[in-house]
Write a structure and sequence with these properties.
This protein is 28% helix and 26% strand. The chain is an alpha+beta fold. The strands form four sheets. It has a three-stranded antiparallel β-sheet, with no helix packed on it. Helix 2 runs antiparallel to helix 3. It is extended and about 65 Å long. It starts with a helix and ends with a helix.
Length: 167
């Protein structure tokens, strides 16, 4: 696999899409790829040559032909990426008709949706930003109160009551 990747790197270099391939350093972006031959997957474990059986966090989600496995290290944790060929193209499910709806774009409210009986208002980004700033301020006020005090209870009610009020 390393030779295949090196060949691809040189192809990209000579086509002008990349720089000259550099030797990969140790402990920087550590990863290696296993083709389908030298590893096996059973339930929640994988057999890697030279290491033996290694536990996985979860079982494979899809059944089918396993193409390869890439073992990579991110922040001192090792991850395995296993592409699987399921052999079928999943078609998205057909959406059923749920009736008609109207939309009105406005100035005070970003959009108003209605279906004939019910009207729903979607606030724009400016009120949302203002509410986030207010939430930060109220949370700061709450954090300054002594735990278990009446003033903390009042500040807690004030903080989360304002969250529940519609815009």
């Amino acid at each position: 696999m390393a030779i295949i990747q090196l060949g691809r790197a040189f192809e990209n270099f000579f086509a002008g899409r990349a720089r000259y391939p550099q030797f990969r350093r140790k402990n920087v972006d550590d990863r290696f790829t296993l083709t389908n031959d030298p590893f096996r997957v059973e339930k929640a474990r994988i057999w890697i040559p030279k290491l033996g059986w290694v536990r996985m966090r979860e079982e494979l989600r899809f059944g089918g032909k396993i193409l390869s496995a890439t073992v990579s290290r991110v922040a001192d944790r090792w991850f395995v990426s296993i592409p699987v060929d399921t052999g079928e193209d999943p078609d998205p499910p057909k959406a059923e008709n749920q009736g008609e709806a109207g939309a009105d774009l406005g100035v005070e409210v970003l959009a108003t949706l209605w279906t004939g009986e019910k009207e729903e208002k979607i606030p724009g980004p400016k009120p949302h930003k203002a509410l986030l700033l207010r939430l930060r301020r109220e949370s700061r006020r709450l954090s300054r109160k002594r735990k278990g005090s009446r003033n903390r209870q009042k500040a807690f009610r004030q903080t989360y009551l304002f969250l529940l009020t519609p815009v």
